[in-house]
Amino acid sequence: MIDLKSVDTLVIGSGPGGYVAALRSAQLGMTTAVVERGRVGGVCTNIGCIPSKALIGEAHRFKQHKQWNQAVAAAASFEDAQGFKQAVVNKQAGGVQYLLKTAGVSVLEGEARLIDEHTASIQQAGAEQRISFKHAILATGSRPIELAALPYGGRIMSSTEALSLSQIPSSLVVIGGGYIGVELGQMYAKFGTKVTILEGGGQVLPGFEADLVAPVVRQLNEDGVTIITEAIAVHAEQDADGLTLSYMCQDEQRTVRAEYALVTVGRRPNTDGELGLENIGLQTTVRGLIETDAQCRTAVPHIFAIGDITEGPALAHKASYEAKVAAEAIAGKPSIVDYRAIPLVVFSEPELASAGLTETACKEQGIPVIAGKSSFSINGRALALKEEPGFVKIIADQASGIVKGAQIVGIEASTLISELVLAIEMGATVEDLAMTIHPHPTLGEVIMDAAENAVRKMRIVK
What values do phi and psi take at 255, rounded to 5? Predict the structure, then answer.
């Protein structure tokens, strides 16, 4: 038994929620420790957001190179892409470790388990360390959901294994057409894999409006991806060369043959297992989530929960945002969460981004709105980049012009959405956006043009 150590704040998990919480806690003058059972940076840095975006970027560059040079070798390029991906991951993880070290945060390696309301046990390689804390922030993240009919193993992969293949698969069937399935499916398609996406609903990328998804579907088709909607996977038979997946579609059982299957049907919160919530009387919902208040405080007042283990979308930036709120609440500051403008982003081609309310949601809620829209196809910068597909749509209150929401499909949507998130947060109007001077020629002018179109519609309505 190692001697008991005491800290003001103990953070369990070092992903984008955990390490940000630890940094903010230390910045506010509290002695802080963070526990990580894997590699510092968590899923996002090591086997999620960062490596996937590195490979997506490499796939896009490979496609561009192939357009100019038909002799580009996919196998060699993919090997280089994996090397580049790992270099990016290593640099990012090292950066997180550096930030924690310079902030004075103690990093403890091992599996954390709550013993009581002020003590945690950390197990590693058979040794135990106990640490006491005044406050704790739970940031244990999530893991891919495993289907009973398609257990992981062999040729059935989660996103983790799909990001670590050493060779390009000749064919891949993706079960689930959400953002992970579309992103990774399209990435492999660009490297030459024959990809089939099975989606249980009526369209891929459910939750996004159909007009926003349409340009992505067109590009998926151009990339050779087969999309089958209203398809439910039943079981798979594996052999030495691949697998045969059976699925139901239109009351008919069908099969598809592929070298690998990738299951991307969502993520499960890491609140079960060895965390020890039962030792402190903390209950979870039927979905395994921990209920929190506006300061991310759980039913145990000095214990907080953030990120994927709480209600709301499982997004890295949501976790980081909540991390700051929780740390500041512990320090006695009046910080609270406000989720009205969490941006949703899909790193497809073209990219998708959404923030605030959609036009459909406003109609369902009975909010009179107008929508201003402008296309990338008339934007000089987009034309110069040969990136014409897509548009910006801004939703504004019909009477006041206050921006209620925005959606973008097109090049750099993931970057451009930030201006519109700020507009929603600040209560800006479409006239504010229209009168903001945007540099020329830039992609940001599409936002200005969409805002101007919204202003014109307002004048017509009035």
Answer: -135, 155
**pLDDT tens, residue by residue, 73-102:** 788 789 999 999 999 999 999 999 999 999
Task: Give per-residue pLDDT as tens, 41-53.
Answer: 999 999 999 999 9
CA distance 180 to 274: 27
- pLDDT at position 407, please? 98
Using N-to-C axis directions, what is the helix angle for 49-68 and 179-190, rounded to 10°?
30
pTM of the model: 0.93
Catalytic residues: 440
CA–CA distance, 290 with 296 (Å, rounded to integer) = 10
Predicted confidence at residue 3, as pLDDT, reads: 44
Q: Which amino acid is located at 330 in the chain?
A: I
Furthest-apart CA atoms within the chain: distance in Å = 75
Cα torsion 64, 353, 421, 403 to 10°: value is 120
pLDDT under 50: residue ranges of the chain: 1-3
**Structural contact between residues 178 and 206, judged by C-beta atoms closer than 8 angstroms:** yes
pLDDT, tens digit (0-9, with 9 covering 90-100), for 112-138: 999 999 999 999 888 899 999 999 999
